[in-house]
Amino acid sequence: MTTLFTVATSEGGSFVCTTPAPRVYLVTFTSAPDNRLKTSFLQALLRCLDIIEYQHASGCVILTSGIAKFFSNGLDLEHWHSTPGFIEQSFYPVLRRLLTYPMPTVALINGHGFAGGMILAMYCDYRIQNPAKGFLCMNEVQLGAVMTRPMTAIFDKKVLSPAMFRTLFLEGKRIVAPEALKEGLVDALGGLEETLAFVKERSLLALGDAGVYGSIKEEMYRDVLDGLESHEANLAWRDRLQAGKKTAKEKAVAAMEAEEKGQSKAKL
Questions:
Q1: The whole model's pTM is what?
Q2: Which residues, 6 or more positions from 162, have their beta carbon under 8 angstroms from its beta carbon?
Q3: How far is Cα 166 from Cα 173, in angstroms, rounded to an integer?
């Protein structure tokens, strides 16, 4: 297996691109302890995708982790809230790049894929999960984290079962590999060997050769892209919703207080 290049992160992590087969680009990311999605991580991933597209022949990109336990444990919430522009300048650009990438992308989920880590995998074209260990989970409901529209929109397109959509987001259930396969969250089970076989069976290597693969995906996922490119509008919608709920609460509380006063006077 030949190493093509390495991109280091500012926090001591690395992205190593190797070629386990001709025109197959295996990008292995390692950012201890659990591949949390921070600015340096996401910018390094963008750099890798640029290098592959602009300096190498079209083929197939496989994303996986060099940490056995974790594919990715998701967004670093403290980093998110303390870093101005993090979502729209780092996280969304990665999602957009994957969604419109001009060659097939495969997430090889070797371990846990939680929250943002699962979202990252869902924005790839295909997903292959380790059958022996690791969960897929959207646990924001337990963390008390409100999600943005682009974080849920991709599931509208790729999760066929409304019941599983509800289970993922409103229950935060941990999904094991066999269930993930049954529900269509992943396309196959296995490791690198099975992933390479999957790439060959699906004839993925040639799909980007005609130069329209990314453009077709742009049309398929146009509404998802609209959400990624309308961050301010998404925030404004959330603010209006919160304001409406606050007003409704104030009216309800005032009505209950008035009713209680009326009942107290009646007793007198």
A1: 0.92
A2: none
A3: 10
- Side-chain-facing half-sphere of 123: CA atoms under 13 Å: 26
- Pair 123, 46: CB distance under 8 Å: no
Q: Hey, what amino acid is at 155?
A: F
Residues in a beta bridge with 109: 129
The pLDDT of residue 240 is 87
For residue 204, tell me if it sits in a domain.
yes
Q: Does the residue 51 lie in any domain?
A: yes
Question: Which pLDDT belongs to residue 221?
Answer: 96
Measured distance CA(268)–CA(265) in Å, rounded: 5
Mean pLDDT for back-to-back runs of 10 residues, the chain (268 residues) = 95 96 98 97 98 98 98 95 94 98 98 97 98 96 88 91 93 96 97 98 97 97 92 77 82 81 70
Residue entry with tokens 């693969």? 213
Q: Is residue 131 part of a domain?
A: yes
* Spatial separation of the C-alpha atoms in residues 91 and 41, rounded to whole Å: 10
Domain membership of residue 41 (yes or no) is: yes
Residue found by looking up tokens 């025109």 in the block = 23
Domain count for the chain, please give it: 1
Residue 178: CATH number of its domain: 3.90.226.10
What is the residue range of 153's domain?
Answer: 2-229
> Taking CA 242 as the corner, what is the angle to CA 236 and CA 246, rounded to the nearest 5 degrees?
145
3-state helix, strand, coil in the chain (%, to 5): 50, 20, 30
